[in-house]
DNA sequence: GTGGGTTTTTGGTTCATACCAGATTTTTAA
DNA sequence: TTAAAAATCTGGTATGAACCAAAAACCCAC
């Protein structure tokens, strides 16, 4: 049983006081308990929280929804609300494997290959990779988890011409290591885009979230040293699972700048 | 008066059919109208839409909320819902001014300086800039708009030691041009982080949105050629206003790689 | 015409209720 | 003992009603 600190004299639904809304008061009260670690793991049930804060369920759910947007809590379908684990720091520009940067940060990573097939590129991909609409590409879908929590669905498309027989490798492992070891692509370049998005089924289901949940979409075009694009990635992340980080590579730059 | 295509035989609130929910059907119907440009500018009022789709207002608002998360529509406080303009493409790594990259993309930019003061750094800033907690920094807040729509609130802190008399310049103009012209910082390096966040008052108010709205937080540490950090930025963006983009600088890299 | 007050319209907040669907736990029967 | 069935708990969906706050439209006196 979880005990929540709660000033019993505060009437959360009393909108007269200070022109502050009930949902905002409840939101702040729960946020405070989470930040001060008085609340960990799973939250009390919605109906319990309604009783605690003396608000209707829809008001409570408005507060919970905002805490979810803040990345403080998340839900498991029809099972309950949970305090979010810390975010994964992720540098889409860095040529590091998922395995590497997750373990560096103390997470237990895992990957499941959902599908592997030959596809014809959509307009966006054919334009990005400069290939004809009828060119066959190797396409894979994967779900990646940290500490048993699914955080990203990847949708990767590879140019067969550039990466011969790629479909014969174990594609549930690190692609960046495969590029390095098998195809000798030690230097690659990325075009990255990041934007806020909504996660819909079936992606939402793979991430154990709901249809319409908040996400971050990372798109990446991978090029070789000559600027030839050979890989097109779409990554759909749980919005609460990651923080994009890109650190200036001082050592490299300074080297170049020294006479 | 806006006319909406709508199959009158579809009962949106009939949950029996196909196990698809009313809010999802309404969401898809409105999304379709927006994508097909049958719906532009402002949407009909919520009560009208309720009548059109035969759902309760709370159900409709759930659909509108998801369309908002998708970046398809946005709201002006108590005035109505509007179809989102296209997103601004923004490369936080590029040393380009807001004026420059907005006009390049055909937007009309403007900036309002909200405040300018001397502050003592918080823990995060003092650690990032490697300055003592009692060092005075010049701090400014600005709101930047494109086509009259406020899209980002900036919170910038500068090291006075590194940028002497910075407080005497017009800080509603481009800082990157100021750095270039006045302080001769032609080459700078950035540490960037991007994450999903919630926008609360007063930031939400500056962006003409509501307390708890979705946002993207961009944090940036600016360093000189020697790696010395002298500026700390926090940017709070409307989540529907931007797309982070970073393009591989092929020309530069290829130059380096050529023998 | 026009400025200022009034009315109307709009979204924003909150409530109470009901029932559904899936996860979880408990009970029951083989 | 264990697997299947039932009960229970949880969040998810949906309704409709009421009232509030601010924006927008309107109107009228000057």
TrEMBL record, chains A, B:
Q: What is this protein called?
A: GntR family transcriptional regulator
UniProt xrefs under PROSITE patterns: HTH_GNTR
**What's the source species for this entry?**
Pseudoalteromonas aurantia
What GO terms in the biological process aspect are recorded for it?
A: negative regulation of DNA-templated transcription
The entry's keywords: DNA-binding, Transcription, Transcription regulation
In its UniProt record, a GO molecular function of this protein is: DNA-binding transcription factor activity
Entry-linked SUPFAM superfamilies: Chorismate lyase-like, Winged helix' DNA-binding domain
Domain (HTH gntR-type): give its ranges: 16-86
Say yes or no: keyword Transcription regulation present.
yes
Cited InterPro entries: Bact_HTH_transcr_reg (IPR050679), Chorismate_lyase_/UTRA_dom_sf (IPR028978), Tscrpt_reg_HTH_GntR (IPR000524), UTRA (IPR011663), WH-like_DNA-bd_sf (IPR036388), WH_DNA-bd_sf (IPR036390)
What's a Pfam family this protein contains?
GntR
């Amino acid at each position: 049983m979880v005990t929540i600190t709660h000033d019993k004299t505060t009437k959360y639904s009393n909108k007269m006081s200070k022109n502050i809304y009930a949902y905002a008061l409840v939101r702040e009260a729960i946020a405070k308990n989470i930040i001060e670690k008085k609340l960990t793991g799973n939250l009390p049930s919605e109906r319990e929280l309604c009783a605690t804060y003396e608000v209707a369920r829809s008001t409570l759910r408005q507060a919970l929804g905002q805490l979810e947007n803040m990345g403080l809590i998340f839900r498991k379908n029809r099972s309950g609300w949970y305090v979010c684990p810390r975010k994964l720091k992720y540098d889409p520009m860095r040529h590091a494997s998922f395995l590497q940067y997750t373990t560096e940060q103390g997470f237990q990573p895992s990957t499941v290959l959902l599908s592997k097939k030959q596809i014809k590129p959509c307009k966006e991909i054919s334009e990005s990779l400069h290939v004809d609409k009828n060119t066959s590409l190797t396409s894979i879908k994967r779900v990646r988890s940290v500490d048993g929590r699914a955080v990203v669905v990847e949708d990767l498309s590879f140019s067969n011409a550039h990466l011969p027989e790629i479909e014969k490798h174990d594609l549930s492992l690190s692609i960046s290591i495969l590029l390095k070891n098998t195809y000798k692509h030690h230097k690659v370049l990325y075009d990255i885009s990041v934007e806020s998005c909504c996660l819909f089924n079936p992606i939402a289901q793979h991430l154990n979230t709901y249809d319409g949940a908040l996400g971050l979409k990372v798109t990446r075009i991978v090029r070789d040293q000559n600027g030839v694009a050979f890989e097109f990635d779409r990554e759909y992340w749980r919005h609460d699972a990651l923080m994009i980080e890109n650190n200036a590579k001082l050592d490299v730059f300074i080297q170049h700048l020294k006479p």
